[in-house]
Amino acid sequence: MGNIFLENSPLFVLTQVVPVLYIATTVLYGLHFFRELPIAGKLKQPALIITIVTHVADIGLLTSLEGYRLSYSAYNLMGMVALTLTITYMFIELTTKSDKTGFFVIAFAAGSALLSSILSAKTIDPGPAVSGIGIGVHLIASIFGFSSVAIAGLYSGIYLVLFRQIRLNRFGLLFQRLPNLEALELLIMHAVAFGFFFLSVTMVAGVLEQQASEEAINLLDPRLLSVGVIWLLYGISLVIKPLFGWDIKHMAVLLIATFVLVTAFLFVMSLFTPSFHGVGL
């Protein structure tokens, strides 16, 4: 089977343009955050919207090709992670009128988009295609779940950096530009709640789909175990502070560690397999 991207010139060009737009948008947000350049401030949000629209067009063109459907391939998952992260952040920016964390979130999204573009040139087998409502819900929920994990980890890192700056009486650039600790704590807890919800949907939809297909569920599957552990950690994180008064600093460390481990797991999986699921799922 040939590479579907190399056989379609418009699709290939669009797939390469998407990560360039993500990087350009990241640069604009970085220039606005660190340098407060007026031109960057004016262009960053239009660039964000153009990036999202172009990425959606790329996915639309890809799925319009005969015989191709979204799948569990590393290319699809990394690209969708970038898109959902960016859409989620745009919603936050438009509703809160705060763009102070945009550089950090979009930079990670740009990394995912770049990895997705690299994988598109190497992908021959697109992996098991999505078919059925249950599998579709499972795929979409898993992508939003990881995006929530990423946002929680990123905001936790920002929280710890800002906390350290305040403790050392360094009221510099980060203190002036970033949201205050209370606002960051609220953002972290919201991300954790969303992550717990979407991971719950991911597991339930996956189990129901396997039961419907009459396939045995392997409880020792590393992917199932990893999702279960993250789901448990996020569930505990939602109740440990109000019930036991656990410091948000310790929770932030846990969320960062979870984010790093999940990112490393996805990266390793993308190197050794074209899909995060076997053909049977």
UniProtKB/TrEMBL annotation:
Family matches, as InterPro entries: Cyt_c_assembly (IPR002541), YpjD/HemX (IPR052372)
Keywords per UniProt: Membrane, Transmembrane, Transmembrane helix
Protein name per UniProt: Cytochrome C biogenesis protein
Alphabetized GO MF terms: heme binding
Origin organism lineage: Bacteria, Pseudomonadati, Chlorobiota, Chlorobiia, Chlorobiales
Stretches that traverse the bilayer: 12-34, 46-65, 71-91, 103-121, 133-162, 183-204, 224-244, 251-272
Pfam families tied to this protein: Cytochrom_C_asm (PF01578)
Sequence ranges assigned to domain Cytochrome c assembly protein in this UniProt record: 74-271
Domain of life: Bacteria
Organism expressing this protein natively: Chlorobaculum parvum
GO BP field: cytochrome complex assembly
